[in-house]
Write a structure and sequence with these properties.
It is built from 5 helices and no strands.
Length: 136
């Protein structure tokens, strides 16, 4: 059985997780990224906290979404619905992560990102629930 939909979105979400991880490392003055900046660089503590939360928020939501996506794919739900939900979720995570982790003020990206994240979850939940009811 091919699980290519789950695999594609897992790869994309992990790639973005790595971007957010590097952002946090950079704002913590990691020796890995220190050579990229001037020696007297000043780090805004609020920006560091925002980057940490953007990373954490993705880590909190992505595994649950990917588990639900996997279960839906294993149950042969329509791939159009799976891709639609996954695209909303991925776009939402990108918007939220960029708006919250890289900018000090971007309510459109932050709120829009969370809205699309919830919409991705909701699409999967509705179709998974209807499949479960239909199978009973």
């Amino acid at each position: 059985m091919s699980l290519e939909i789950t695999l594609v979105y897992t790869i994309l979400l992990i790639s973005f997780t790595l971007v957010l991880t590097i952002r946090v490392l950079d704002l913590r003055n990691s020796p890995v990224t220190k050579f990229l900046h001037s020696p007297n660089r000043q780090i805004d503590p609020e920006m560091l906290q925002r980057a940490i939360r953007a990373h954490g928020n993705l880590i909190e939501n992505a595994p649950l979404f990917l588990i639900l996506l996997l279960l839906c794919e294993l149950n042969n739900l329509n791939s159009i619905y799976l891709h639609t939900a996954s695209m909303f979720f991925l776009l939402g995570r990108l918007m939220h992560g960029i708006g919250f982790g890289f900018m000090l003020h971007s309510p459109i990206l932050r709120i829009g990102g969370m809205s699309l994240t919830f919409l991705g979850f909701l699409i999967l939940l509705v179709f998974a629930s209807s499949e479960l009811i239909r199978a009973s």
